């Protein structure tokens, strides 16, 4: 399997699991950022299976996203001279995203496994809850780098429709508006809701870019050998490489 197919597979797995995780969490009526320590402890006590599921799926997501980014790095390089610096920037953003989001999953796991004990320690519960939301919001800065870098890599390499690169830039722009709202997010301000259109744009971008990369996979080995033979026999009649 060539690099484009691996990258496309990684992107599709990432988009699928991220949507699944958010549907699971969204359907459980998770408390808002301003919820009291008792409400937080009660939710984790009654929904302890959800953080466990997330902690299982998270490593798969963290593996699939770098695979997608690496595939995009190689894909854009194949249509340009040397490595595309925008794609390199995107890979750095993906690594940064995985590092920061591990803190979100870690605090979720602690709150879930220690929910009974934390119910008697409201100050510590509130601290973990705020840390969870702050890390989640700051994580959006890494997605600005990832989405923006991948979008610019596509646009400068001209390996995908212009509108797809535009979609990535929209996601990056919206994430940048969300990343600077750590305090509003902790206060459950309506302005922090900009993260929702950013999330949808980002997931759509990754999914569509993956399908595009998959559809434009290079020739198979058999096809390449066949064409090489045709060029050797009759260079004039050989069709150009698209």
Any key phrases for this structure?
disordered C terminus, mainly alpha, single chain, 242 residues, 10 helices, 79% helix
Helix and strand layout, with pairings?
Layout: H1 3-26, H2 37-46, H3 49-78, H4 85-113, H5 115-118, H6 122-157, H7 162-179, H8 182-186, H9 195-215, H10 221-233
Helix pairs in contact: 1-3, 1-9, 2-6, 3-4, 3-6, 4-6, 6-7, 7-9
Describe the structure in your own words.
The chain has helices at 3-26, 37-46, 49-78, 85-113, 115-118, 122-157, 162-179, 182-186, 195-215, 221-233. It has one domain (3-217). It starts with a helix and ends in a 9-residue tail after the last helix. It is elongated and about 60 Å long. It is built from ten helices and no strands. Helix 6 packs antiparallel against helix 7 (162-179). It is an all-alpha fold. Residues 219-242 have low confidence and may be disordered.
Write a concise synopsis of the structure shown:
The chain is mainly alpha-helical and 242 residues long. Helices cover 79% and strands 0% of the residues. The chain has one domain.
């Amino acid at each position: 399997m060539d690099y484009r197919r691996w990258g496309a597979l990684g992107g599709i797995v990432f988009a699928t699991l991220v949507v699944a995780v958010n549907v699971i969490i969204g359907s459980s009526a998770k408390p808002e950022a301003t919820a009291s320590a008792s409400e937080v402890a009660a939710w984790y006590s009654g929904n302890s299976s959800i953080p466990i599921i997330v902690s299982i799926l998270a490593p798969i997501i963290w593996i699939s996203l770098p695979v997608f980014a690496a595939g995009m790095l190689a894909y854009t390089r194949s249509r340009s001279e040397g490595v595309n610096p925008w794609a390199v920037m995107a890979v750095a953003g993906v690594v940064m995203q995985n590092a920061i989001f591990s803190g979100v999953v870690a605090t979720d796991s602690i709150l879930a496994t220690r929910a009974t004990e934390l119910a008697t320690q409201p100050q510590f519960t509130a601290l973990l809850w705020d840390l969870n939301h702050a890390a989640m919001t700051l994580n959006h800065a890494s997605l600005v780098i990832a989405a923006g870098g991948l979008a610019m890599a596509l646009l400068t390499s001209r390996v995908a429709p212009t509108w797809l690169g535009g979609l990535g830039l929209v996601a990056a722009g919206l994430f940048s508006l969300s990343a600077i709202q750590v305090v509003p997010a902790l206060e459950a301000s309506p302005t922090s809701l900009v993260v929702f259109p950013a999330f949808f744009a980002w997931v759509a971008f990754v999914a569509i870019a993956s399908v595009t990369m998959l559809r434009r996979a290079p020739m198979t080995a058999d096809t390449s050998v066949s064409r090489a033979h045709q060029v050797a026999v009759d260079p004039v009649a050989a069709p150009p490489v698209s």
